[in-house]
Amino acid sequence: MVEQSALLGVISVALGMVLSPGPNMMYLVSRSISQGRKAGLISLGGVAAGFLVYLVAANLGLAVLFAAVPELLTVIRLAGALYLLWLAWKTVKPGGVSVFTVADVPPDSPGRLFTMGLMTNLLNPKVAILYVSVIPQFIDLDRGDVLLQGLILGGFQIAVALSVNGSITLAAGAIAGFLARRPSWLRAQRITMGGLLGVLAVLLAVGTTA
């Protein structure tokens, strides 16, 4: 149903995007550092719920849309490539702030932590564009059910995002202290992630990742 190259492409994009600072990571790290790992993991549960909302809503609509207008995949591929280039520039540009340089936030109840994680993800432009402009270009109309392909690819993206964010949430305090003492390591991380996103953008634009 889904080619291995498409799965690898989605995993690569998901890794590049989840490792670049964004609203989800900043919120999870803030909670983990200021309120503890348990609070960070509860917040991560809300983020996971947000991914599921996007997964179902986007794929139900896209399945119908792509069946009616197959050429839209080309437009989406180019839009996704432009977005990755913009994200790469944001990652490496001078004056960027580390996701691990966060301000303390007041403690909240588990219910509020979950809800804030959910809303942070639902209002995250990175996730919206990922599901509308990036993942769909890995769908092959000649390989059967478009909806099932979208759900499988999105499922892999969610697995990658939760694995990375979960690991960062658990290690946020130690990572923040480590990078605070080694600013050159932080710059190297930003350059590496920005370079990866730039390469992925080029590959998407020329259609070699699908």
What is the H/E order?
A: HHHHHHHH
CA radius of gyration: 17 Å
Question: What kind of sheet is the major sheet?
Answer: none
Given helix and strand content, the structural type is mainly alpha
Determine the number of helices (DSSP H or I, runs of at least 4 residues): 8
Helix content: over 70%
Q: Overall pLDDT, averaged?
A: 78
Q: How much strand?
A: under 5%
Distance between the termini: 14 Å
Low-confidence stretches: none
Number of strands: 0
What coarse outline follows from CA principal-axis ratios? globular
Characteristic terms for this protein:
210 residues, mainly alpha, 8 helices
Written overview of the protein:
This protein has helices at 4-18, 23-35, 37-68, 72-92, 110-122, 125-134, 146-181, 183-206. With 210 residues, the chain is mainly alpha-helical. α1 runs antiparallel to α8 and α4 runs antiparallel to α8. The chain starts with a helix and ends with a helix.
